[in-house]
Design a protein that fits this description.
- By secondary structure, the protein is α+β, with helices and mostly antiparallel strands.
- It contains 15 helices and 18 strands.
- Among the domains are: 119 residues, 2-Layer Sandwich (Beta-Lactamase); 78 residues, 2-Layer Sandwich (Beta-Lactamase); 206 residues, Histidine kinase-like ATPase, C-terminal domain (Heat Shock Protein 90).
- The protein is elongated and about 155 Å long.
C-alpha cells in the first residue's frame, strides 16, 4: 500500500509538471505562430501598398507633367496671342500655327471659336466639317458655363475638321473661355486644345504589367473611364469595373470585394483635373505566398509541440523522482529521527538542496549540544569583563600616585592623571555597551598608558601606529588594555628604561589586525601554546581579564575564526595580534552585534 501511495504521488508531481509545461508550450507556440503569420501577412500587404503607391505616384507625376504642358500651351495661346490681338486688324493663324508646330507631337489641333460657334482660327487644318454643331459640343458647353476654369474632356474622336488623310484621332480636349477683341470691343470666345489621347495611353500603359489581374486605370471627376487596359471589353459590356464606388474614395489604399473577389484598391488624384488614378490588385495575387507560409508555420508549430511534449515528459520525470526521494528523507526527519539519511542526488539544484538539508540537520544537532555550553560561556565572559572594568589594584596605585603628586606640588601632573583616569573609566563603562569603535578602544589604551608611564616614571617607551582606515570599525571593548598590561608586567617592567611597547593596526582585505609588541623577556614556544587554553590561569598581578578572556570574548562576538594570535621569542620580545572582521561602526551595527549576532 505504501508503494502504491508513493507511486501515485510521484506520478502526480510528474503529470502536474508535464501538463503545466505542455499547456504553456502549446499556448506559446500557437501565439508565436499566429503572430509570425500575421506579421508576414501584414508585411506583404504593406509591401504591396508601398509598391502600388510608388507606381501610382510616378505615373501621376508623368501624367501631371503632360497635362501641365498642355495647360502651358493653352495659357501661351490665350495670354500671349489672343489678349494682344484685335481680330478686326489681324488674325491668329500665324501664331497658332507656330505654337502647333512646336508641340505637334502631343497635339492634334488648336482652335478658337466665338460665342456663337464661329471658327476664328485653327491649326493645322482650318477647314470645318459641314453640319458640325459646335455650340452643342460638351467641351464648348463646359467652357461657357464655367468661364473661370480649364476643362478636360473624356477621350473622344476628333470630328471638327476635314483631314486629307481621312484619319480619325482620339483626343482629350482642353477648353476654356477666352476674351476676344474686335474693333475695340470684347466678346466671349472658346479656346480648344485637342491633346493626342495616344500620349496619355502610352503613359498609363507603362504602369500596367503583363499580369492582367493587376492593373491601373484612369477616370475623370464624374467617374467616366478615361483609360482602362480592358477598355474595349468594358465598351462591349464583357467586363465591368467598380469605378463609381471607387470615385467616392479619398487618396489612399482600401480593401473591397467586387463580384466575389477581394481586391486592394489604391487611389491617387491628378492635379488640375480632378481625375483619379486607380490601382487594382486582387488579394489572391499574393495568397499563394501566404498559403505556403501558412503551411510552413503549421508544420513548424506541430514539430515544435511534439518536441516540447517529449522533452516535458523527460524533464518532469527527472525532476519528480529525486524530489520524491528527498521528500521521503524529510518525512523521516519529521517523524523524530534526528539522524536521518538525507537523499543527495538528481539535478544540481536538488542535489544542492539535499546537501544543504544534510548539513542543516548536522548543524542543528550540533547546535543543540553546544547552545547550553555557549550561553554559559558567554555569560561568564561578559561577567568577567564587567568585573575587570575597574581593577582595584590599578585604581589604588593610580590614586596613590595622584596623592603624592599633589603633596609634592606637582598639580599639573595630578590634573593630567585625573583627566586620563576619568577618560579611562568613561570609555570602560561605555553606557553598558560591549561593542565600541576601534578609535575609542585605542583612546582607552592611550589613557591607560599615559597613566602607567607616570606611575612607572617613564621606564619604557610607547608608540601608537594605527591606520586611520580601521578607526571607524567595530571591536569588543577592553581588548587592547589587557595586552598592554601584560606587556608591562611580563615584558618591560624590569628593563630599566630600555623597554619599548608598540601598538599598531592595519586592514587586510575584510580583516582588521591590531598588534601589541614589546621587546621584553619573551617566552618559550611551549608556554605560548598554553596561554589560550581553557585550563590556563592568569597570573595574580596580571590583567583581571587575561588573554584567554579577551580571546573568548572576541570569538563569542564575531565567530571562531577570530581572536588572538601570539608570537614570542625568548629574550627578544612578544607580539600579541588581535584578529577582527572589518565591520564599519554605526549605531545600527553596534546594536546588531550587541544582540549576540556573529556575522553581518
Amino acid at each position: 500500500m505504501t508503494y502504491i501511495n508513493r507511486y501515485r504521488k510521484t506520478y502526480s508531481i510528474q503529470v502536474t509538471i508535464s501538463i503545466s509545461f505542455t499547456v504553456l508550450s502549446v499556448c506559446s507556440m500557437c501565439f508565436l505562430g499566429i503572430m509570425l503569420y500575421e506579421q508576414f501577412v501584414s508585411r506583404m500587404e504593406r509591401m504591396a501598398v508601398e509598391s502600388t503607391g510608388q507606381l501610382l505616384g510616378q505615373t501621376a507625376i508623368n501624367l501631371e507633367d503632360y497635362l501641365r504642358n498642355m495647360r502651358r500651351i493653352s495659357d501661351a495661346m490665350y495670354y500671349s496671342v489672343i489678349k494682344d490681338k484685335d481680330l478686326s486688324v489681324e488674325g491668329l493663324d500665324e501664331e497658332m500655327n507656330l505654337l502647333y508646330e512646336a508641340n505637334k507631337d502631343n497635339l492634334i489641333s488648336i482652335a478658337c471659336y466665338t460665342n456663337d460657334g464661329e471658327l476664328v482660327a485653327a491649326a493645322p487644318v482650318a477647314t470645318e466639317k459641314q453640319g458640325v454643331d459646335i455650340v452643342g459640343q460638351q467641351w464648348f458647353l463646359d467652357a461657357v458655363e464655367q468661364m473661370e476654369n480649364l476643362h478636360f474632356s473624356t477621350p473622344h474622336v476628333q470630328n471638327l475638321f476635314d483631314d486629307t488623310s481621312y484619319r480619325y484621332y482620339w483626343v482629350v480636349s482642353l477648353s476654356r473661355a477666352v476674351e476676344l477683341t474686335e474693333s475695340g470691343s470684347s466678346a466671349l470666345g472658346v479656346l480648344l486644345v485637342d491633346m493626342n489621347y495616344s500620349s496619355i495611353e502610352q503613359l498609363l500603359a507603362k504602369a500596367n504589367t503583363d499580369n492582367s489581374r493587376e492593373y491601373v486605370y484612369l477616370m475623370d471627376s464624374e467617374g467616366e473611364i478615361i483609360y482602362h487596359p480592358k477598355q474595349k471589353l468594358i465598351y462591349t459590356g464583357l467586363y465591368e469595373e467598380n469605378n463609381l464606388e471607387q470615385l467616392t474614395h479619398e487618396d489612399g489604399s482600401y480593401k473591397e470585394e467586387f463580384q466575389g473577389e477581394k481586391r486592394l484598391i489604391t487611389v491617387k488624384t491628378i492635379s488640375y483635373t480632378g481625375w483619379k488614378l486607380v490601382s487594382v490588385v486582387p488579394m489572391s495575387s499574393f495568397e499563394m505566398g501566404l498559403e505556403e507560409m501558412r503551411y510552413f508555420v503549421i508544420m513548424l508549430v506541430t514539430v515544435s509541440l511534439l518536441a516540447v511534449m517529449i522533452l516535458n515528459q523527460l524533464v518532469s520525470a527527472r525532476i519528480a523522482k529525486p524530489l520524491q526521494k528527498l521528500n521521503d528523507s524529510v518525512k523521516e526527519w519529521e517523524e523524530g529521527n534526528l539522524n536521518p539519511a538525507i537523499y543527495v542526488g538528481g539535478s544540481m539544484e536538488v542535489e544542492h538542496l539535499g546537501r544543504t538539508l544534510r548539513s542543516t540537520v548536522e548543524q542543528i544537532r550540533q547546535l543543540m549540544q553546544d547552545i547550553v555550553v555557549e550561553q554559559e560561556e558567554k555569560r561568564k565572559s561578559e561577567l568577567d569583563a564587567l568585573q575587570s572594568q575597574i581593577n582595584p589594584h590599578f585604581l589604588y596605585n593610580t590614586l596613590d600616585s595622584i596623592v603624592w603628586m599633589i603633596e609634592g606640588g606637582r598639580s599639573d601632573d595630578a590634573v593630567f592623571m585625573i583627566t586620563q583616569l576619568a577618560s579611562l573609566f568613561r570609555i570602560s563603562l561605555s553606557r553598558g555597551k560591549t561593542v565600541i569603535s576601534v578609535e575609542d578602544e585605542i583612546r582607552h589604551a592611550r589613557n591607560y598608558m599615559n597613566i602607567q608611564k607616570i606611575r612607572y616614571k617613564n621606564l619604557f617607551r610607547v608608540t601608537f601606529d594605527v591606520d586611520s582606515e580601521i578607526l571607524s570599525c567595530c571591536t569588543v571593548k577592553l581588548v587592547v588594555q589587557p595586552l598592554l598590561e601584560n606587556a608591562i608586567y611580563y615584558g618591560v617592567e624590569c628593563m630599566d628604561g630600555d623597554g619599548e611597547i608598540v601598538v599598531s593596526g592595519h586592514r587586510s582585505g575584510e580583516d582588521v589586525y591590531i598588534e601589541v609588541s614589546d621587546n621584553g623577556l619573551g617566552m618559550p614556544e611551549e608556554e605560548v601554546a598554553q596561554l589560550l587554553k581553557e585550563n590556563n590561569r592568569a597570573p595574580r598581578h596580571g590583567s583581571g581579564v587575561g588573554l584567554l578572556n579577551v580571546h573568548n570574548r572576541i570569538k563569542l562576538r564575531f565567530g571562531p575564526q577570530y581572536g588572538l594570535e601570539i608570537e614570542s621569542v625568548p629574550d627578544e620580545g612578544t607580539t600579541v595580534r588581535i584578529h577582527l572582521p572589518y565591520i564599519p561602526f554605526t549605531p545600527e551595527t553596534q546594536a546588531w552585534l550587541e544582540s549576540g549576532k556573529k556575522q553581518i
